[in-house]
Amino acid sequence: MENKLIAPRKIQGFWELMPKEEALFEDMLSRLRKVFENNCFQPLDTPVAEFSEILLAKSGGDVDKEIYRFTKGHADICLRYDLTVPLARFVAGNMNELIFPFKRYQIGKVYRGERPQKGRFREFYQCDADVIGENLSLTYDAECIKLYEPCFKELHLDAMVEISNRKLLAGFFESLGGNVVELMTIVDKVDKLPKEEIASLFKEKGLTASDIEKTMKIISTKGDIKEVKALSAMCDNDTFKKGMEELEIVDEYLKALGMTNYLYNLSIVRGHDYYTGTVFECYIKGKRSFGAIGGGGRYDNLCKNFMETKMEGVGMSIGITRLFDILRNENLLNTENYTSIEIGIITFNETLLAGLALMNKFRESGVKADIINENKSFKAKMKEANKRSLPYIIILGEDEVKASIYTLKNMQTGEQEKLKFDEIIEKLKH
Amino acid sequence: MENKLIAPRKIQGFWELMPKEEALFEDMLSRLRKVFENNCFQPLDTPVAEFSEILLAKSGGDVDKEIYRFTKGHADICLRYDLTVPLARFVAGNMNELIFPFKRYQIGKVYRGERPQKGRFREFYQCDADVIGENLSLTYDAECIKLYEPCFKELHLDAMVEISNRKLLAGFFESLGGNVVELMTIVDKVDKLPKEEIASLFKEKGLTASDIEKTMKIISTKGDIKEVKALSAMCDNDTFKKGMEELEIVDEYLKALGMTNYLYNLSIVRGHDYYTGTVFECYIKGKRSFGAIGGGGRYDNLCKNFMETKMEGVGMSIGITRLFDILRNENLLNTENYTSIEIGIITFNETLLAGLALMNKFRESGVKADIINENKSFKAKMKEANKRSLPYIIILGEDEVKASIYTLKNMQTGEQEKLKFDEIIEKLKH
Question: Which of A327, B98, B344, B357 has the most CB atoms in a 10 Å sphere around its CB?
């Protein structure tokens, strides 16, 4: 029979984990879902593909090269590259059915056709929580920042959030008469370039030595709200003052929310130019070198491409694929503790039916029990049990079945105990 | 400012739910995940897109018209149309890292570019559990059938599984000297066409009146294993006898597993010609008219397009999007019971910080509390609380904050109670 074999290749850069790691990843996702629900965010699940005119509305042709775009019949379609534009489409399309402020979270895959490299994926998960509404209180800015704390806690990590407000620098650059967008783009590079280079980039854009000195002072500011307030006198611009005021208010709210792991870092601008107020980035506490694991901020007009009504928003995001990838590379994942089978049952021909019944009884009691594949020799079954590093096995002979007493063998210690069903359940629950 | 608005259209037939329904759907998915894990299946999450040569390997050009296919750079890519071919690619590509039998489940979106219609989607969820290995015991066939029971139970439904074995009819048709594939295709239509038409289709394929009578007798058989065994004498073909034997063994295993809601229906063949033994379909008990909610069976060689080693498999699938769609259309979803906010807190300027602290304390105790958007008048806040059908609200005045005693108002009954924080937690946990 002719059967030309095809190499089982996956597309490079597309996210796929081996089962043990996937189990941990799934566990992380379900913990995050729980936190979002607990914080009154509602789930949303938009399609992976949208009409190109929707997805490309915002950015003109900017993301065109990276995007997966194709036609099907007459439809011009793209795979989504973020979860924000689909949210805007959803909100604009369901204005009359939604209750605002609308708090939604979404965990889903997004697609960017860039060249794959370490830490960069073409298909990866994003995890976003946003609040959308008209005339949104700054309490929501504080809430989105605070949200990192329970999220990271559920992942057994500590979050550290660095906060700024774009109005501050925007107002300051305005007061210097500079091109705000260009100057912001330079600030966005602060973490990547040495100070001298940043300064010379400012110089190229026409800032005077004294202006550069002031700018460097602002963007070097890191600390608590007092250090931010110490800059108040530096600038008289209204936007600057508004940013300062918003930061102070958000700080009050953060304190009321019991948030402790945060600081102000006025060099944070977040590349995207749709942020208009509060901006923030989240790091693993004590591991700033891993880079930002998430970020977010306040934006003015989510749905501007789709409708006249102005909907403000503020949102936070966790780069969950990136986070998992980092934890894996740093050997911070506990894959060894995960087991898909808690008790392996080894049966003989005459005890197979009893073994199936026992397995079912265990599962109904919430214990992950499994029969070792029956179509194998005893020796092969024992070999499989070892290979799987099962925590426990039961070798089920006829005597065990008759007496309803089972020899539970701890595969790590070799220890054996004769126990009744209920005693095994009791033991495993501890 | 020029801003040409774009209509916020979603691609037709792509799955998207409103938040309340999505919350119920997410809940269903997480319940199913729990059941699969409890039954020792490991999670897998393959990419949504694969190389076309992988996805189209099995079917030649058969699914070509339905499939979403495109190129990106030099890569010829398709969106997956099921979860089975990606599983085959994954198993073949990771043979040396996996431990067999490999039990995996996957819940993910699949894509079929057909014309959308009632109950048919272009993007929808599939939910599969499969066991892959060499020389797989029939216990796994029974396990996959049994799995519907805890899955449906978790969804507060009763499963009814109808079972057959393709060898039975294949062997029988063989013994008649007929074209097995063509005759099976006719059997697959039994639920859709009247008996006379089925009989005349058999006649067209050259079956004699006596053969047709026998065939109709077999495919009309519905009942317990005794009724299947009563047919034993009808045919002497080895494949037929093997099918009969396998059904009897699987029946023993099902009984050992405590399965009760199943019957044999020998007209079940499952369209896909890759099933080679046990086949089954699952219905909601008492609601057969809703159609099959899932199905599955035993197949011989999962990875034949990708490697020489023969890997057998048996799997079950739940059409979870279809199921949800049916429950929704039949008004069997309890969306009214879901609330994203359990307690709405209405604050005044002077109690906002105390309100944020209280909200945080509730959330840390697992209660979904939320401040009603602060940037609103008191009247507008009360209106929002009503619109959201919140179960409870607290109107937080200065007196409440000072005394740490809160007036909890039941929004359904209008009842008000003055309670301490711990008393509220206690009350809500019941």
Answer: B344
